[in-house]
Amino acid sequence: MEPILQFFYNLVPGLADLPLWIAATIVGAIVVVAMFTYIALFALIGIWLERKISGHMQDRLGPMEVGGWHGWAQTIADTVKLLLKEDIVPDKADKPLFRFAPILVFAAALSAFAAIPWSRSFIPANLNVGLLYILSISSLVVIGILMGGWASNNKWSLYGGMRAVAQIVSYEIPVSLSLIVAVLIAGTLDMQQIVLNQSGSILSWNVFRFFPFPFIAFFIYFIASLAEVNRTPFDLPEAESELVAGFQTEYSGMRWSFFMLAEYADMFVVAAIATTVFLGGWQAPFEFLTFIPAAFWFLGKALLIVFVQMWLRWTLPRLRVDQLMYTAWKVLTPFSFALIVFVSLWKIL
Amino acid sequence: MAALLTKEKETTLYLGPQHPGITGNMMVELKLTGDTIQRAKTHVGYLHRAFEKLMEERLWMQCFPIVCRICVPEPDPNEENLARAIEEIEGREVPERAQYIRVLMLELARITAYLMWMGGQSGSMGLYTMPQWSIGDRDYILDLFEELTGGRVYHMYIWAGGVRRDLPVGFKDRVRKVMDYIESRLVDYDRLLFENAIFLKRAQGIGIIDKEKALEWGVVGPPLRGCGIAHDVRKDEPYEVYDQLDFELITHEGNDVYSRAMVRRKEIEQSIHIIRQVLDKMPSGPIHNPGPNPLKWKVPAGDAYVRTESARGEFGYYVVSDGSLKPRRVHVRGPAYVHGIALLEHLLQGANVADVSFIMNSLGTCPPEIER
User: Fold this and answer.
1) Looking at the structure, do residues A264 and A302 belong to the same domain, yes or no?
2) What confidence score (pLDDT) does residue B111 get?
3) Which residue among A274, B190, B304, B354 is least enclosed by CB atoms within 10 Å?
């Protein structure tokens, strides 16, 4: 947090006179609000983009009316609609849990943003175990989803919640194992250090070093991360044709939209981890391009991965539950173990 | 372990009548242990409109708009059946040109029905691009229907004694153009659905129909041909001018969802082939052999059973006339009744809950047709 505090001290010199804990709290609150705004904006743009992408893939135009230019204000209109919707809590639901679930899911997604390095100086919390922190905090999402599924008192929700737990817990293993491959190369869990470790040209990014092991690990991570955030082909927890809407079935209005926000935030988080760990983070691909701000490169790479996530959603069908488990335990996990062994050997020799 | 499994508690899951994965207004009651279905029971009755009874109170002419509604995505085989049954009782001749136009209609309707099935089948596994594509392409054929008959979905075009209108000027070229387009799109469909690795994984070995029992159960149409049994009314008992047209009878070994899908996929090509031949061979001449004034139209006493191959399978109509202004009895034997109730219950036993909608779609379950 030091660089950010310093930045704010320079901006508002009066802050430096206050005791550290007050200054840190103020700065922290500002950063959280900024992150929340960012997630909301990202979800607004992301949902619009997803509609446009799906529309163009499906020989349609997508939203075209609201706001004039290519329906850019469609998601804003939808958000207003969601805000005005009646907030329904089922009569037989476990009400406290039902209310708390979307908050928990969203809080977990928001907290993960704390350790993402946007540029050399902007990282909300520069932890020395940043990667571990992100992985563990985003595991909380599972509890929120199970809570929502259980508390709804609906069989579809329960099935969706159970599926989500089975899926996310299983896929956390290949996610972590494939990240360990990169951690072995970098020798640190510090997100900023992992990025700095990859400075240079595109060839010093982790994907292309120790070729081809981290390259394979990158794909394993990408596939498993799709399952982590319930995207197609792993969208079983909310499989429409099977489970109506899975754990979200009973949710409406703002509570539902918090699940939606969390989903988009998670999409961005996994893309950001992939960018940071494998694709050089905020570093420019070539030395002569460094004059472009680092945040641009970071956002560009992350959004490219988000685009691929959306692209896959509209071209792949859903897997069956047993095939999902097969992919996690019999394909991705053994492969990432093998990669760890190979990279460790390479590192030692 | 076995003792643990047998003690597992059963959950009851009511799939439908309002559920995005169900092919219409019907309900499947599932008894589950975990994700495996132990027993399935279909509940229909949400869409019963008593069409067969209704027809007994209608003039013969008024029956045509009713039979259309029996099968929503593909109404033409029903009109064809009723028209042919009446013609058989009356002994009325149908001009050759009308017969060709009927075949054209039936095959166009078959393609629309398969395109719609494609959408349902891929929608049931979360591939929502396919329905957008195939139902969008289906619209080009619906445009042709609209031009020819005035209706996009329900046509009421095939009539006792012929068809209602002749082809408009330039219609044949437009049909050819649409057929060329659909043919070119088949490549895209293959890449998105029929050759998709996940589709193959999900479809192969799922929903297996026992080949020995298929005929016994009365399975017809693509599910039967997907068992490798060559049965098609168009070949077995050619009606209209099917005996003068050259087309292949598609069968596929495998008995599963995949083989049913491939039968339908290849039949689209055959239908396009048939339509092109019909357009080439169609003679000129009258299109209707008119009967008496429809308001005073009495069909002579007698009965007839006719069969037509629809996209779901064999459609049979048993029509009885007592010589009055109204039919005495019209009995409909629809393929979805066999597929969507007994066969579905049987196939769902031991299936995964994720495959319910998938299997339903592959059988062409259609509640409007089950209940009538």
Assistant:
1) yes
2) 92
3) B190
Q: Which residue of A has its CA nearest to B131?
A: A58
Share of chain A above pLDDT 70, in %: 98
pLDDT of B318 reads 92
Q: How far apart are CA A298 and CA A158, in angstroms?
A: 38
Q: Are B371 and B49 in contact (CB under 8 A)?
A: yes
Q: What is the pLDDT of residue A3?
A: 67
pLDDT attached to residue B248: 87
Residue B14 to residue B182: CA distance in whole angstroms: 38
Give the separation between CA A32 and CA A26, rounded to whole angstroms.
10
C-alpha to C-alpha distance for A104 and A94, rounded to whole angstroms: 15
The answer to whether B324 and B318 have CB atoms below 8 angstroms apart is: no
Q: Which residues of A touch B357 (CB under 8 A)?
A: 241-242
Q: Are A228 and A237 in contact (CB under 8 A)?
A: no
C-alpha to C-alpha distance for B356 and B119, rounded to whole angstroms: 16
**Is A339 a residue whose pLDDT tops 60?**
yes
ipTM of the complex: 0.79
Asked whether residue A240 falls in the same domain as residue A199, the answer is: yes
- Note whether B138 and B116 are within 8 A (CB): yes
Q: Domain range spanning residue A38?
A: 1-84
Q: Are B43 and B28 in contact (CB under 8 A)?
A: yes
Q: Kindly tell me the number of DSSP H helices and DSSP E strands found in chain B.
A: 16, 8
pLDDT of residue A106: 87
Number of structural domains chain A divides into: 2
Cis check: omega of the bond before B238, within 30 degrees of 0: no
Three-point CA angle B106, B78, B210, nearest 5°: 85
Q: What is the pLDDT of residue B2?
A: 57
Cβ atoms of B320 and B82 within 8 Å: the answer is no
Q: Which of A244, A317, A321 sits opposite B20 (nearest CB)?
A: A244
Q: Cβ distance B363 to B117 under 8 Å?
A: no
Low-confidence ranges of chain B (pLDDT < 70): 1-8
Give the domains, in start order, of chain B with CATH numbers. 2-371 (1.10.645.10)
Helix (H, G, I), strand (E, B) or coil at B124: coil
What pLDDT is recorded for position B7? 63
Q: Is B304 helix (H, G, I), strand (E, B) or coil?
A: strand
Q: Which residue in the block uniquely carries the two structure tokens 């956002």? A: A299
Placement of tokens 């009967």 in the chain: B291
In percent, the amount of chain B with pLDDT more than 90 equals: 17
Distance CA B115, CA B189 (A): 10
Same domain, residue pair A10 and A70: yes
Q: Name the residue among A58, A232, A236 with its Cβ closest to that of B132.
A: A58
Rounded to two decimals, the pTM is 0.86
Are A64 and A193 within one domain? Answer: no
Do A202 and A229 have their domain in common? yes
Amino acid at B198: I
A59 → chain B, closest CA residue: B133
Gap between the Cα atoms of B117 and B110, Å rounded = 10
A86 contact B CB<8A? no
Amino acid at residue number A127: L
Token pair 């097969």 is at which residue? A326
Is A40 within 8 Å of chain B by CB? no
Q: What's the pLDDT at B73?
A: 82
- State residue B4's pLDDT score: 57
